[in-house]
Specification:
The structure is a single chain. This protein has helices at 30-45, 72-78, 434-440, 444-452, 467-474, 477-485, 500-506, 510-518; strands at residues 51-53, 84-87, 90-94, 98-100, 110-114, 120-124, 130-132, 137-140, 143-145, 152-155, 163-165, 168-170, 177-180, 187-189, 192-194, 209-211, 219-222, 225-227, 232-235, 243-246, 249-251, 268-271, 280-282, 285-287, 292-295, 304-306, 309-311, 315-319, 330-332, 335-337, 340-343, 348-350. The two termini are 33 Å apart. Helix content is 13%, strand content 21%. It has eight helices and 32 strands. By secondary structure, the chain is an alpha/beta fold. The relative contact order is 0.11. Helix 2 links the parallel strand 1 and strand 2 (84-87). Helix 5 (467-474) runs antiparallel to helix 6 (477-485) and helix 5 packs parallel to helix 7 (500-506). It has a domain at 434-518: Ankyrin repeat-containing domain (Serine Threonine Protein Phosphatase 5, Tetratricopeptide repeat, Alpha Horseshoe). A twelve-stranded parallel sheet has the order 1-2-5-8-11-14-17-20-23-26-29-32, covered by helices on one side. It has a ten-stranded parallel sheet with strand order 3-6-9-12-15-18-21-24-27-30, with no helix packed on it. Strands 4-7-10-13-16-19-22-25-28-31 form a ten-stranded parallel sheet.
């Protein structure tokens, strides 16, 4: 299995082309090639400032490119809001957890980024890899592995409005990326978490991603993948507040690849309980789990699943809980192949391939491909997944146009079933979206250059978001003004059913909502794409894992 992250892929001239591995069928336009090459040069020219860390550095130095620091801890002590720490490739052996206690500011986050396409790998001997208790941090491109407990943990009420982007967390002694103890309004984007295993508890706790034991409101995971973790892919155990998961994929978790005697991994793709948390799961997929793909697991609030796909799990969808608000669970437009269905009759479920009024018999012939080698392989440099046909509906499938309108954009007479909408005219998927990336990186010079060259300001990326949506997620008021001034649609609905104003409200950015309302921004009719508030009536005490060090 290919597990190396996309920023290891070749950059430079390859960025001008379509990153669709061997699936590309079109010859790139030479004008497009020139435009993207210039954009890449602008992007790389913009990283000249900030502080630099390298394995051969010296903490007594100034932290320049020529005289880098030796440790990330020293750089963190020096960096200020709005500044960036660039970490060069190599392995960083740390004796203790790297603590991020200070905070950036809205519009001026503290950035800790891998330098260009390099791979900085952090190994921590004791405790977790990273603990984030501050706000407005943007971590990007780091690799955290072989820690004693969790790879990265966002914890406490002070841990809010952080962005965790394109991280790899693997081979750690507990959950790869975990949110807990009041952490709120954090975005986990295009991250991979795999092969995490908690030896002291025989694999019962190490998930790919966790939102557990009392999270705050507004946490969202987008475009993340979890595989071969000892316990579950995504775990919302005692979350206490709503968590949003969009375009996330879980596969082959809970398999005892370590051949550990007494192995007790739970082996679920998406575990959506126990107790409160009105979680919202949109366009996600789970496959080949020994137990369950999507598991309610005792959630007493009720969750929402729109347009999800499950393949060859022992049980694809398990919603059998008999207590709490079982009728508040809503399942629409979901797809199952090769696994069991266990649904309490009180669940509000319609227009799934197994349920009324459809009862569609889905077979392998309904899909273009069931080969997951591309969707599980390396990412593109911007974190996207190359174009692939896995679990995508084949022309003529009865699952096309078989769904019901839940407020998400669709092609044809009605929504399709499953995570991937059938669109024979869609050609841009699999391309690196330079404008979207520049907005997330707050690279104003590159944004202006791309727009001047005719980049489509309302074009959506593989996750169904336009640049304006990302400016709202990342909290950049200046970019909202810039993009709207260049023609961005201030009411464009994302493929997960949200307008820019809804995203700004979900992320609790009052200044952004004021700007968007000034320009005529509105709330869409669906209002189900992202968690806006907690639906929990009870808050659970924060919990420390018995084997976990600070």
């Amino acid at each position: 299995m290919r597990i190396r992250c996309a920023h290891q892929a070749v950059l430079g001239i390859l960025l001008v082309c379509q990153f669709s591995v061997s699936l590309a069928t079109e010859t790139p336009d030479p004008n497009e090639s020139s435009k993207y090459l210039n954009a890449v040069r602008t992007f790389f020219a913009a990283d000249g400032g900030g502080y630099y860390v390298a394995t051969g550095g010296n903490d007594a130095g100034p932290g320049t490119m020529e005289r880098p620091l030796a440790t990330l801890e020293r750089a963190i002590a020096m960096v200020k809001p709005g500044e960036t720490v660039y970490v060069r490739g190599g392995k960083y052996q740390c004796d203790k957890t790297i603590m991020l206690l200070e905070s950036g500011e809205q519009g001026k986050p503290i950035r800790v980024w891998a330098y260009r396409d390099e791979e900085p790998i952090f190994n921590v001997k004791q405790g977790r890899g990273f603990t984030v208790r501050g706000a407005y941090w943007h971590l990007k491109g780091l690799i955290i592995s072989d820690t004693r407990t969790a790879g990265l943990q966002l914890e406490g009420d002070g841990s809010h409005h952080n962005v965790i982007e394109q991280l790899q967390t693997h081979s750690n002694g507990d959950t790869g990326v975990n949110l807990t103890r009041g952490a709120a309004h954090n975005l986990v984007l295009n991250c991979d978490s795999y092969r995490n295993f908690d030896l002291p508890t025989n694999g019962e706790n190490a998930d790919g991603f966790g939102a557990k034991f009392g999270v705050g409101q507004g946490n969202t995971l987008i475009g993340c993948r979890a595989w071969n973790n000892a316990d579950d892919g995504f775990d919302c155990w005692y979350a206490g507040s709503s968590v949003g998961m969009e375009n996330c994929y879980a596969y082959r978790n809970g398999q005892n690849i370590w051949e550990h005697p007494g192995f007790t991994g739970n082996a679920n793709g998406f575990k959506l309980g126990q107790m409160e948390g009105a979680h919202i799961v949109i366009r996600c997929a789970a496959w080949e789990h020994p137990v369950r793909g999507f598991d309610l697991n005792g959630n007493s609030t009720g969750v929402t699943l729109y347009n999800c796909s499950a393949l060859r799990n022992r049980i694809d969808y398990a919603f059998t809980f008999t207590k709490g608000n079982i009728d508040k669970n809503t399942l629409r437009n979901n797809l199952s192949l090769g696994g069991g269905i266990r649904i309490n009759p009180a669940v509000n479920e319609q227009h799934n391939n197994w349920s009324t009024p459809l009862d569609i018999h889905v077979t392998e012939q309904d899909f273009l491909s069931l080969d997951d080698s591309v969707i599980t392989g390396p990412r593109n440099p911007d974190g996207s997944i190359p174009k692939n046909d896995f679990l995508r509906l084949a022309p003529g499938s009865d699952a096309i146009d078989a769904g019901t309108d839940v407020g998400l954009p669709f092609v044809g007479k009605a929504p399709d079933l499953g995570a991937f909408e059938y669109d024979p005219n869609k050609t841009s998927e699999g391309y690196v979206k330079m404008l979207h990336r520049a907005v997330r990186d707050h690279n104003v010079k590159q944004i202006e250059q791309l727009l001047a060259q005719g980049e489509a300001v309302n074009d959506k990326d593989w996750l169904g978001y336009a640049p304006l949506h990302w400016a709202c997620y990342f909290g950049y008021p200046d970019l909202i003004e810039l993009l709207i001034g260049k023609g961005a649609d201030h009411n464009l609905i994302s493929d997960t059913g949200r307008t820019p104003l809804e995203i700004a409200e979900a992320m609790d950015y009052e200044s952004l909502t004021n700007i968007l309302r000034k320009h005529g921004g509105t709330i869409g009719g669906n209002n189900r794409g992202l968690p806006l508030r907690s639906d929990s009536a009870e808050k659970h005490p924060f919990y420390r894992h018995p084997f976990e060090a600070t």
